């Protein structure tokens, strides 16, 4: 499928690979560079290199790799569908469910369930991620929007890139945050010492998280976070960076933590403009029972 984008003043002098990675949030910069190497990306109808610096008014066109025949098995897994129409659907993903297949997770994923539920998912992200515009981690519960058409996918991806999507999360962190509100503005990239983790790195992608305190316990804090960007593990990395790692986080939290079988993080609010109708849609779901019980336990203990 051929897609197009006109470079704005805000995007002037950005490298083409970085800009396209921002426009296509589910694609890494190296994947975009692969598109460029294959000649799938053109600027003003000319093939360019990955280090090309965009100019205002440049017309970027790119063709995503051809969609392969899906070999992922549809599975009759119950879905908590909050909203659905012919263009998209919004799902309340349970804790413990992987969003898309990967090594070690070929079944039981949200994609497996979606393929059983509906046949019409966008193909922009290829064979392993049909319909997936953005994702949340396996052990993070909450709201996720899925595109059924390529038009919806492109529109939603642009909103994510332009920071026009409202995303709020609830989390429980170690330590007592004394100030009521805060903001973390620190770039995120692959951890230089551990490629399996993300970290705060100088040449990472810009990342901004705002938060405010909902309730303080003796040794923990219940917070709400709002994402201005959507980097991998963003809240988990940012809260660890400022000294308040998430409870139950096996990757970024302390070894001694509460047993929540994964980070205590819930995507509770999702708002966006419908990419076809133009209507503003906003959804909110309560945190799952384990999260509620955690709060009750902390209240009783402390």
How would you characterize this protein structure?
It contains six helices and 15 strands. The protein is 19% helix and 27% strand. Strand 12 and strand 13 form a beta hairpin. It has 302 residues and is an alpha+beta fold.
List keywords for this structure.
302 residues, alpha+beta, nine-stranded mixed β-sheet
**Proportion of strand residues:** 25-35%
Mean pLDDT value = 90
- The 3D shape can be described as globular
**Strand pairing plus helix content: what structural class?**
alpha+beta
Tell me the major beta sheet: 9 strands, mixed
What is the count of β-strands?
15
Poorly predicted residue ranges: none
| Spatial separation of the terminal alpha carbons | 56 Å
Subunit organisation of the chains: single chain
Radius of gyration: 20 Å
What count of helical segments does DSSP give?
Answer: 6
**What string, H for helix and E for strand, traces the elements in order?**
EHHEEEEEHEHEEEEEEHEEH
| Percent helix | 10-25%
Can you summarize this structure?
By secondary structure, the protein is an alpha+beta fold. The protein is 19% helix and 27% strand. It is built from six helices and 15 strands.
What is this structure's SSE topology?
Layout: E1 2-6, H1 16-23, H2 29-37, E2 41-43, E3 46-47, E4 59-63, E5 81-84, E6 88-93, H3 110-117, E7 141-147, H4 150-161, E8 166-174, E9 181-185, E10 188-190, E11 198-200, E12 208-216, E13 220-227, H5 234-241, E14 265-273, E15 280-284, H6 289-301
Parallel strand pairs: 7-14
Antiparallel strand pairs: 1-4, 2-3, 2-4, 5-6, 6-7, 8-13, 8-14, 9-12, 10-11, 12-13, 14-15
